[in-house]
């Protein structure tokens, strides 16, 4: 059975889901995206993703073609039409297709493009959750507004390709001697004195929805959390390290550039936070 995608108001087979070569998402990466996880057919932490979508489009003066409520309805409809149990919904909105290639925003009444598709992934039972992943470090060569969830992901494509070639599960990007974030994830460590450390939000990183939920869940349980930058040296001296994102939830990191973190196995705090997050996800799914 062919997958169904959503394109500008229509549900169509994925192979027929197309946009113009003049689409500004294609020509200029002039667009914003979101990825929300699906567990047991329900959207995870979607209000947080939609809030970030609204913020991102606002930062680039792009008007959403549909209300957030309607976007959530479409996400749900797409999950249903694909009989999706576990996986994610990808959504992208671009500044649409003008009549040519002009850098400045279209003057005419050009409608933004809105597309969505789903993919299958059993996030909860992913084998990497048990084994942990290795990461490599790469220089962070991205633009200065990483807080905007822009589809301009070339730096991350190169970072994650380098990771794949090194048989690593993620790339940690480094700037001024400190970890900014993963290619598509937020980075955490657990220090020797049991402080959970993750970089503070700002224009240097994407404000991760999973990061935000994990910080809140940890604080509610009186775990100590510090939002500050940390170096790779500090991560290698830590008890544990992990990443968070909509597509992995909480994922242990057991080595960095081939050097062990802790004892080289997923640690108890990472496992605990993963369980806490999965419980939260199930309890708040829509
Ligand atoms: N990426 N940092 C970056 C650069 C990301 O691309 C992502 C997510 C995150 C984690 O954010 P969240 O917890 O809201 O998923 C942090 C998505 C999953 C992706 O590009 O596939």
Mind explaining what this structure looks like?
Helix 6 packs across helix 8 (268-284). The chain has helices spanning 24-28, 46-59, 68-81, 127-131, 154-165, 209-220, 232-236, 268-284; strands at residues 4-7, 10-13, 31-39, 42-43, 87-94, 113-120, 133-139, 170-175, 178-182, 186-190, 195-198, 224-227, 240-245, 249-256, 259-260. The chain is of the alpha+beta class and 286 residues long. Strands 7, 8, 9, 10, 11, 12, 13, 14 and 15 form a nine-stranded mixed beta sheet that branches. A six-stranded antiparallel beta sheet has the order 2-1-6-5-3-4. Bound molecules: N-(5'-phosphopyridoxyl)-D-alanine. The site of N-(5'-phosphopyridoxyl)-D-alanine (PDD) has 14 residues, from helix 6 and strand 13.
Features:
globular; six-stranded antiparallel sheet; binds N-(5'-phosphopyridoxyl)-D-alanine; nine-stranded mixed sheet; 286 residues; alpha+beta; 15 strands; 29% strand
Average pLDDT over all residues: 98
Structural class: alpha+beta
Biggest sheet details = 9 strands, mixed
Tally of alpha and pi helices: 8
The small molecules bound here are: N-(5'-phosphopyridoxyl)-D-alanine
Share of residues in strands = 25-35%
For the record, give the distance between the C-alpha atoms at the N and C termini, rounded to a whole number.
25 Å
Spans of at least 5 consecutive residues with low confidence? none
